[in-house]
Amino acid sequence: MKNFGYSIIKQRTIDYDQFDGRLLNEILEMESSFKVCLSCGGCTATCSAGDLVSFNVRRMNLLLRRGETMELESEIKKCMLCGKCMLVCPRGINLRNVIMLIKKSILKYKLSG
Amino acid sequence: MDFPPSFILPFTIGLLFISVFLVIITGIWISGLPRIDKSRIIKSIFTRKSLQAIRETFMEALLHRKIFRKNPVLGYMHMSLAFGWFLLIVVGHIDAVNHYQTFSVPAYKAIFMRYFVTEPATTLSGKMLAASMDLLLLFVLSGVMLAYFKRLNSRMFGMKKTTKLKMGDRIALSALWLIFPLRFLAEGVSAGIHHNGSIISQPTGQLLASALPVQSIEMPLWWAYSGALGMFFLALPVSRYMHIPVEVVMIFLRKYGIKVQKRVSGYSRIQVYSCSRCGICLDSCQMTHADIKDTQSVYVLKHIRNKNLTDEKLFNCLLCGRCQPDCPVGLELNNLRMTQRIESTKEYNSSYEYLKNGPVVVSPQTEVIYFAGCMTHLTPAIIKSMKEIFAVAGVKYWFMDEDKTACCGRPLMQVGQYEAAKKLIEHNREKIMASGAKKLVVSCPICYKVFNEDYALPGISVQHHSEYLLELMADKRLPINKLPLRVVYHDPCELGRGSGIYHQPRLLLDEYAEVIPIKNEKEAAFCCGGSLANIKIQMDERNQIRDKAMDEYLSYQPDVLATACPLCKKTFAKSRDLPVHDIAEIVCMAIRQKKDASSDKIKSKKELKMELWG
Ligand code: SF4
Ligand code: SF4
Ligand code: SF4
Ligand code: SF4
Questions:
Q1: pTM as predicted
Q2: DSSP-assigned letter for residue B62
């Protein structure tokens, strides 16, 4: 078949009734600086891991708020914790703590089911 | 045989209990040491090291020489209690041996001697010993008085805050405070009854006998004294005073060459228990400048002991190491915190599989590798200067992380992700080894430390650019030009306290500008506040820490603040109070200026200063 560069988009509906807010609430409570992210993308632009693999750290916020924990888990592992994002962030967001908290909390909720 | 009086029971039970307990717990700790450490003990135990350890025990655990140096009043308090009590026991036994004329004196007969001896000392030696015992008790009591006072008013001791007490500490502390006053009273009353005693106990006895029914209070007082002793021994394992016996064990093991490793071990537990909670580490911690007052080393060690350490406290520390040289017990505070961080995060280390699937980078063959580091990529002026200097010196090099390279792994390590860091280390190591280089030049002290300590790089010398530039200069491969600028040099934590590099950057800077000595430098240097090791601190708190350090630097009225770390540079530069430059930039500026001078465009000091801001 001829490839026109189009494809069928996967089903992307998010059912908010199914939304598990535990992770989001916990992260926002533990690191409240994350609330003021303005999605400028500065962090993604400078990211050391993003240089080597497809990884968009700004999207972690989106994934977290959408409750897409599976994708969040596989993405967050890519961060090398180098700290560049924290230094360029115009809002002074403590992203490294957000990342460590997400890693820890995902494990915690997995253990407790 | 006559039975001893029943009041010796509390003391005897306490002493038995604590002796058995200490033997068991030390056994458990030592058996929890890695095998290599155990063989270290066996190899060293019958060598001079044991003698040195005895000497150190004497100097530090009894005389508290280091506390003395830091704070004489506090030092006197610790010394009078520890050394005074020690002498009371030793001289007391000599006194008893002398009196009973036998070497097999049971402990209680020496400790409670004044109860058993009803006649005055007749021999000269007996009189001398009795007098010394009186004076020693007075010496210890002066320490107890200071301790009362310190609880009431810790400011007098120059400390910001004394640590809070829990139940076990309360009991042990009350017992300790009571032991010596009770002994004083009991001995006085007995002296009053028997009309004996020495220079102090005799007048005290007469005074007490004239005012009180001494006959009827003698027994209760000796009971109380023995009870306080017994109580102290019973509460010891659950109190901070456990540091007294444990510190001695620690001193011996340390002399045998045992160190805190990455993992929790018998030795790390011994170190945790050796903390006397003197609180001296609080004084040097800059986090108090940002009003963070409950996460310092003393609290973390306490929480480790009480098994209630939270991540919020564990990770709220810059790992600047400023508190470590001040600790009179000489604990490895940073390493102890690291063992806990590794333990706390060990279940969620990343594996970075993508590094294996990435494009294969073939390392070019080279003598010198330059690794700038993630942070340096945020301060491009440093990279630019390094490139210029390499060109001037005619060095051929491979710029390993010019674009797209994995992080060095140190930031992961600082937050305990040791296994994850190993993956990055292995990845970078292969690339470095494949290049056949002899030298790895690094611009960031954070990278420098990990390359130096955790990468296995046989045949390659790892150098921070301050060492490297100094070497180039000594080899006359760099022109020298002293700029008319006053410079304050800020020691980066990872380079100074972290790697012991204090002199090279100063020697280098001295050739290119005028370095002003300042109060808080070298081992006492400030942290800039930007440390990656603290993942809990907020940006405004970092700024407060930075501003306080900046205030001191500004007071020397320098033209420029020099540092040797891109993160320090970035942190200080944000305050906009003073131009901040890396030493590489200053060297480069001086070299450029010399070139200009040869073409008659010499800059005035004013122009230079303008350029610093540029
Ligand atoms: S740089 Fe800061 S504000 Fe911008 S997207 Fe990243 S986290 Fe959000
Ligand atoms: S800390 Fe992680 S997310 Fe931030 S720049 Fe470094 S690799 Fe990217
Ligand atoms: S860590 Fe050292 S300085 Fe701090 S309280 Fe303990 S013994 Fe004192
Ligand atoms: S390492 Fe630095 S930040 Fe941490 S407790 Fe010690 S002085 Fe404070």
A1: 0.91
A2: I
